Amino acid sequence: MLAERRILLIVGGGIAAYKTLELIRLLRAQGAEVTPVLTRAGEQFVTPLSLAALAGQPLHRDLFDLTTEAEMGHIQLSRAADLVVVAPCTADMMAKMAGGHADDLASTLLMATDKRVLIAPAMNVRMWDHPATQRNLATLKGDGVLVVGPDNGDMACGEHGPGRMAEPPAIIAAIAAALSAAEKPLAGRHVMVTSGPTHEPIDPVRYIANRSSGAQGTAIAAALRDLGARVSFVTGPAGVAPPSGVTVIRVESAREMLAAVQAALPADAGVFCAAVADWRVANAAGQKMKKQAGGLPVLEFAENPDILATICAGPQRPPLVVGFAAETHDVIAHAQAKRARKGCDWIVANDVSPGTGIMGGAENAVHLVTAQGVEDWPRLPKDQVARQLAARIAAELDAELGGAA
Ligand SMILES: Cc1cc2nc3c(=O)[nH]c(=O)nc-3n(C[C@H](O)[C@H](O)[C@H](O)COP(=O)(O)O)c2cc1C
Fold it and tell me: Residue 139 maps to which CATH number?
């Protein structure tokens, strides 16, 4: 589990810092790479040499270390890890984190990181019980910071109660859980994906369809599944097989697709990737239409339900709704207008002009249209577009609904 996982370990100025030496030894025994950072106060409790020797890596101590900045800036240091761990995390460090301070290397790294942070608080029982510390704890949890411990027990100061740093094996277990949650950020989430074309019958053997293969929707469903989501995959008659490990609901027409989507909700997110026919044949025949000498059938059309707009305006609108816009001209302008018209959060727009080879092809060049603006993604294989989109959905849900605390 921890093999080759990179931990940025910040050691604060508490008596429990001696236990962190054992934590480093155990982490390395499990194959993790540990980059140690020591606070000024921490230096009073463990020596820089012990930390660097046990970690097998240079120790970082100074925000204004020109050599380190030249080789690896503090921003890069804060992001190169898979997880940031603070052990022991002092009352002072919790206050700084809750207040957003960045006045030394440790607090600056904690502000600059884009990774999950796990703290192992350790302090005197009265410091732990102090309303300020409890307020800071609540703030940190609200910010998505993970917390392990503290334990109850006898303390170095002679008092008894909560405040002892969690033991190294418990911290390792919390690190492993945090890392696996980071790999499966959509665990516990339900995402509904529509995919493929719809078939609108003319008679029992003929239909009107479009060139959608279902490749992009299938790749998106697989990418969401890989991030741990429970996926309901509502698919029209697609040219590619649905992914494994998702709930597949097969439909033919737009009206069937709307009913299946409504039945699949509620969901944390809805990705509407299907190429739904705008019109259906209003006078579809119940029996096969026969060829008649001198006569041509006259098809009348009726408008299909607008699935995306219906769901966006409905009572079960997912918190995040992603629509797709396949256009052949004025791609961005149409996508922006569609986003406003349908009431969805994001539109993934692509140019499906015949020259692009995108419809039915293996690659896609999309623009992500959000309330913040337009992102132009490079032309990528469809499964890479899917992975990128799934990661964006995971980040958005994490920010919107709050991560695990
Ligand atoms: C002997 C001694 C032991 C300390 N132990 C702790 C402790 O266990 N937890 C804590 O929050 N602060 C403890 N402190 C106070 C911190 O070292 C002090 O708040 C310091 O500013 C923390 O800095 P840092 O969070 O940057 O490491 C201790 C101080 C002394 C002198």
Answer: 3.40.50.1950
Out of 183, 210, 235, pick the residue that ends a domain: 183
Q: What is the pLDDT of residue 231?
A: 97
26 Cβ inside 6 Å of ligand 1: no
Range of the domain at 146: 6-183
- Look at residue 361 and tell me whether its pLDDT is greater than 80: no
Render pLDDT for 13-68 as a digit per residue (tens, 0 to 9). Answer: 999 999 999 999 999 999 999 999 999 999 999 999 999 999 999 999 888 776 77
- Give 17 Cα–ligand 1 centroid separation in angstroms: 10
Ranking 1-5, 124-128, 198-202, 384-388 by mean pLDDT, the lowest is: 1-5
Above 60 in pLDDT, residue 404? no
Do 239 and 381 share a structural domain? yes
Residues 107 and 195 in one domain: no
Determine contact, residues 347/338, Cβ cutoff 8 Å: yes
Q: What is the CATH number of the domain that holds 332?
A: 3.40.50.10300
pLDDT at 358: 64
Q: Specify if 1 maps to a domain.
A: no
Ligand 1 pocket test, pick from 90, 94, 104, 107 with the greatest ligand atom count within 8 Å of Cβ, gives 90
* Ligand 1 centroid – CA 137 distance (Å): 17
Q: Residue 13: CB within 6 Å of ligand 1?
A: yes
pLDDT at 202: 96
155 and 233 co-located in one domain: no
Residue nearest to atom 22 of ligand 1 (CA): 13
Q: Is residue 204 part of a domain?
A: yes
**DSSP codes of every residue in 319-349:** SEEEEEEEESSSHHHHHHHHHHHHT-SEEEE
Give pairs for 309-314: CB < 8 Å, separation 24+.
Answer: 309/341, 309/342, 309/343, 310/258, 311/261, 311/262, 311/265, 311/270, 311/272, 312/342, 312/343, 312/344, 313/343, 314/262
